[in-house]
Protein backbone atom coordinates (compact mmCIF):
# COMPACT_ATOMS: atom_id res chain seq x y z
CA UNK A 1 0.00 0.00 0.00
CA UNK A 2 1.29 3.45 -0.83
CA UNK A 3 0.37 6.82 0.57
CA UNK A 4 -0.62 9.75 -1.59
CA UNK A 5 2.42 11.73 -0.52
CA UNK A 6 4.01 10.90 -3.89
CA UNK A 7 0.85 11.16 -5.98
CA UNK A 8 0.11 14.85 -5.43
CA UNK A 9 2.14 18.01 -4.79
CA UNK A 10 2.94 18.46 -1.14
CA UNK A 11 -0.33 19.54 0.46
CA UNK A 12 1.63 20.59 3.49
CA UNK A 13 3.59 23.08 1.42
CA UNK A 14 0.48 24.29 -0.36
CA UNK A 15 -1.44 24.83 2.88
CA UNK A 16 1.34 25.92 5.20
CA UNK A 17 2.48 29.50 5.49
CA UNK A 18 5.58 31.01 7.01
CA UNK A 19 5.48 30.59 10.79
CA UNK A 20 6.67 34.14 11.13
CA UNK A 21 3.23 35.28 9.97
CA UNK A 22 1.62 33.49 12.91
CA UNK A 23 3.15 34.44 16.27
CA UNK A 24 1.51 31.47 17.96
CA UNK A 25 3.64 29.16 15.81
CA UNK A 26 6.95 30.94 16.26
CA UNK A 27 9.84 28.62 17.09
CA UNK A 28 7.91 25.42 16.42
CA UNK A 29 9.91 22.54 14.96
CA UNK A 30 7.54 20.04 13.35
CA UNK A 31 4.40 22.04 12.53
CA UNK A 32 4.04 23.96 9.28
CA UNK A 33 1.54 26.60 10.32
CA UNK A 34 -1.05 28.42 8.30
CA UNK A 35 -0.77 32.19 8.46
CA UNK A 36 -4.47 32.22 9.38
CA UNK A 37 -6.19 29.13 10.86
CA UNK A 38 -9.14 28.01 8.73
CA UNK A 39 -12.48 27.06 10.36
CA UNK A 40 -13.66 23.60 9.40
CA UNK A 41 -17.04 23.31 7.68
CA UNK A 42 -19.77 21.39 9.47
CA UNK A 43 -19.39 17.63 9.38
CA UNK A 44 -20.84 14.60 11.13
CA UNK A 45 -18.93 11.34 11.51
CA UNK A 46 -19.53 8.40 13.86
CA UNK A 47 -17.32 7.83 16.88
CA UNK A 48 -16.32 4.30 17.93
CA UNK A 49 -19.41 4.13 20.15
CA UNK A 50 -21.65 5.25 17.26
CA UNK A 51 -22.24 8.64 18.82
CA UNK A 52 -22.10 11.61 16.44
CA UNK A 53 -18.64 13.09 16.05
CA UNK A 54 -18.82 16.70 14.85
CA UNK A 55 -16.69 19.83 14.79
CA UNK A 56 -17.72 20.42 18.42
CA UNK A 57 -15.75 17.31 19.41
CA UNK A 58 -12.59 18.94 18.06
CA UNK A 59 -12.91 22.08 20.14
CA UNK A 60 -11.17 22.75 23.43
CA UNK A 61 -7.83 21.05 22.74
CA UNK A 62 -5.17 20.73 20.08
CA UNK A 63 -5.83 17.65 17.96
CA UNK A 64 -3.71 15.71 15.48
CA UNK A 65 -5.86 14.13 12.74
CA UNK A 66 -4.69 11.10 10.79
CA UNK A 67 -6.74 9.32 8.13
CA UNK A 68 -6.27 5.70 7.15
CA UNK A 69 -7.95 2.31 7.38
CA UNK A 70 -7.87 -0.75 9.60
CA UNK A 71 -6.56 -3.12 6.91
CA UNK A 72 -3.66 -0.79 6.09
CA UNK A 73 -0.49 -2.92 6.06
CA UNK A 74 2.14 -0.29 6.71
CA UNK A 75 1.58 3.47 6.99
CA UNK A 76 -1.33 3.37 9.46
CA UNK A 77 0.12 0.99 12.05
CA UNK A 78 3.53 2.61 11.72
CA UNK A 79 2.17 6.12 12.24
CA UNK A 80 -0.11 5.19 15.15
CA UNK A 81 2.73 3.30 16.82
CA UNK A 82 5.12 6.22 16.29
CA UNK A 83 2.72 8.57 18.06
CA UNK A 84 2.23 6.38 21.15
CA UNK A 85 5.32 7.84 22.88
CA UNK A 86 3.96 11.32 22.20
CA UNK A 87 0.63 10.46 23.79
CA UNK A 88 2.44 9.02 26.81
CA UNK A 89 4.53 12.15 27.24
CA UNK A 90 1.51 14.42 26.98
CA UNK A 91 -0.13 12.49 29.83
CA UNK A 92 1.51 14.80 32.38
CA UNK A 93 -0.45 17.76 31.00
CA UNK A 94 -3.85 18.61 32.49
CA UNK A 95 -6.56 16.62 30.73
CA UNK A 96 -8.45 19.78 29.79
CA UNK A 97 -5.55 20.98 27.63
CA UNK A 98 -3.85 17.68 26.73
CA UNK A 99 -3.25 17.21 22.97
CA UNK A 100 -5.23 14.43 21.32
CA UNK A 101 -4.90 12.13 18.34
CA UNK A 102 -7.91 11.39 16.12
CA UNK A 103 -7.79 8.42 13.75
CA UNK A 104 -10.45 8.48 11.03
CA UNK A 105 -11.01 5.42 8.88
CA UNK A 106 -11.74 6.30 5.26
CA UNK A 107 -12.79 2.72 4.48
CA UNK A 108 -16.43 2.61 5.66
CA UNK A 109 -17.12 -0.42 3.49
CA UNK A 110 -15.04 -2.65 5.78
CA UNK A 111 -14.44 -0.58 8.91
CA UNK A 112 -17.36 -0.25 11.31
CA UNK A 113 -17.10 2.38 14.07
CA UNK A 114 -16.56 -0.40 16.62
CA UNK A 115 -13.75 -1.95 14.59
CA UNK A 116 -12.06 1.42 14.13
CA UNK A 117 -12.26 1.97 17.88
CA UNK A 118 -10.74 -1.40 18.74
CA UNK A 119 -7.97 -0.83 16.23
CA UNK A 120 -7.08 2.68 17.40
CA UNK A 121 -7.35 1.85 21.09
CA UNK A 122 -5.02 -1.08 20.56
CA UNK A 123 -2.26 1.48 20.10
CA UNK A 124 -3.33 3.90 22.83
CA UNK A 125 -6.61 4.02 24.80
CA UNK A 126 -6.87 7.80 24.53
CA UNK A 127 -6.89 7.86 20.73
CA UNK A 128 -10.15 9.21 19.33
CA UNK A 129 -11.60 7.01 16.58
CA UNK A 130 -14.27 7.71 14.00
CA UNK A 131 -15.51 6.89 10.53
CA UNK A 132 -18.65 7.73 8.58
CA UNK A 133 -20.40 7.67 5.25
CA UNK A 134 -18.18 8.15 2.22
CA UNK A 135 -19.43 11.65 1.22
CA UNK A 136 -18.88 12.91 4.76
CA UNK A 137 -15.41 11.36 4.88
CA UNK A 138 -14.48 12.91 1.54
CA UNK A 139 -15.63 16.36 2.65
CA UNK A 140 -13.93 16.04 6.03
CA UNK A 141 -10.63 14.96 4.52
CA UNK A 142 -10.77 17.69 1.89
CA UNK A 143 -11.36 20.36 4.55
CA UNK A 144 -8.09 19.27 6.18
CA UNK A 145 -6.12 19.22 2.94
CA UNK A 146 -6.03 15.41 2.99
CA UNK A 147 -7.04 12.96 0.26
CA UNK A 148 -7.78 9.27 -0.16
CA UNK A 149 -8.72 6.92 -2.97
CA UNK A 150 -9.96 3.33 -2.99
CA UNK A 151 -7.98 1.13 -5.36
CA UNK A 152 -9.52 -1.65 -7.48
CA UNK A 153 -9.01 -5.11 -5.96
CA UNK A 154 -6.09 -6.93 -7.56
CA UNK A 155 -8.29 -10.00 -7.93
CA UNK A 156 -11.84 -9.16 -9.09
CA UNK A 157 -12.97 -12.50 -7.72
CA UNK A 158 -12.14 -11.24 -4.20
CA UNK A 159 -13.76 -7.77 -4.12
CA UNK A 160 -13.15 -7.23 -0.40
CA UNK A 161 -9.38 -7.36 -0.78
CA UNK A 162 -8.40 -3.86 -1.81
CA UNK A 163 -6.20 -1.01 -0.64
CA UNK A 164 -6.96 2.63 0.03
CA UNK A 165 -4.30 5.17 -0.92
CA UNK A 166 -4.36 8.09 1.51
CA UNK A 167 -2.42 11.09 2.73
CA UNK A 168 0.24 10.24 5.27
CA UNK A 169 0.49 13.76 6.71
CA UNK A 170 -1.05 14.84 10.01
CA UNK A 171 -3.50 17.73 10.10
CA UNK A 172 -3.38 19.91 13.22
CA UNK A 173 -6.65 21.35 14.52
CA UNK A 174 -6.54 24.10 17.15
CA UNK A 175 -8.81 24.40 20.22
CA UNK A 176 -11.27 26.50 18.22
CA UNK A 177 -11.78 23.70 15.71
CA UNK A 178 -9.74 25.30 12.93
CA UNK A 179 -7.11 23.83 10.65
CA UNK A 180 -4.01 25.49 12.06
CA UNK A 181 -1.09 23.51 10.66
CA UNK A 182 0.14 20.41 8.88
CA UNK A 183 2.87 17.96 9.78
CA UNK A 184 4.27 16.43 6.59
CA UNK A 185 5.21 12.76 6.68
CA UNK A 186 8.92 12.48 5.87
CA UNK A 187 10.27 9.31 4.35
CA UNK A 188 12.27 8.59 7.50
CA UNK A 189 9.24 8.89 9.78
CA UNK A 190 7.88 11.63 11.99
CA UNK A 191 10.13 13.62 14.30
CA UNK A 192 8.20 12.56 17.39
CA UNK A 193 10.23 14.56 19.96
CA UNK A 194 9.59 17.71 17.91
CA UNK A 195 5.86 16.93 17.68
CA UNK A 196 5.74 16.32 21.43
CA UNK A 197 7.45 19.62 22.16
CA UNK A 198 5.39 21.65 19.68
CA UNK A 199 2.00 20.40 20.86
CA UNK A 200 2.96 20.64 24.54
CA UNK A 201 4.06 24.23 24.00
CA UNK A 202 0.86 25.15 22.18
CA UNK A 203 -1.27 23.42 24.82
CA UNK A 204 0.49 25.21 27.65
CA UNK A 205 -0.01 28.52 25.84
CA UNK A 206 -3.72 27.82 25.42
CA UNK A 207 -4.29 27.30 29.15
Task: Offer a quick outline of the entry.
The chain is α+β, with helices and mostly antiparallel strands and 207 residues long.
Task: Describe the protein.
This protein has 207 residues and is of the alpha+beta class. It is built from five helices and ten strands; from the N terminus they run H-E-E-E-E-H-E-H-E-H-E-E-E-E-H. The strands form two sheets. An eight-stranded mixed sheet has the order 1-10-9-4-5-6-2-3. Strands 7-8 form a two-stranded antiparallel sheet. Strand 2 (44-47) and strand 3 form a beta hairpin. 40% of the residues are buried.
Amino-to-carboxy terminus distance = 40 Å
Number of helices: 5
Instruction: For the largest sheet, list the strands in their spatial order.
Output: 1-10-9-4-5-6-2-3
- Spatial shape: globular
Question: Averaged pLDDT, please?
Answer: 88
Helix coverage percent: 25-40%
Low-confidence stretches: 5-20
Instruction: Give the structural class.
Output: alpha+beta
Largest sheet: 8 strands, mixed
Highlighted features:
207 residues, two-stranded antiparallel sheet, single chain, 10 strands, 5 helices, 8-stranded mixed beta sheet, alpha+beta, 27% helix, globular
What's the structural blueprint in terms of helices and strands?
Elements: H1 11-15, E1 32-39, E2 44-47, E3 52-54, E4 63-68, H2 75-90, E5 100-105, H3 113-121, E6 128-131, H4 134-143, E7 148-150, E8 164-166, E9 170-173, E10 178-183, H5 192-206
Parallel strand pairs: 4-5, 5-6
Antiparallel strand pairs: 1-10, 2-3, 2-6, 4-9, 7-8, 9-10
Helix pairs in contact: 2-5
Amino acid sequence: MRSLRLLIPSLALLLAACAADNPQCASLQALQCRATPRPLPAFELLAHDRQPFTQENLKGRWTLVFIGFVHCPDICPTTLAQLVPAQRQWAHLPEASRPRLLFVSVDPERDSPELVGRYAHGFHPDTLAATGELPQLEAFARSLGLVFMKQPPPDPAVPGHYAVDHSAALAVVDPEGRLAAMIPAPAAGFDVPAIVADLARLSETAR
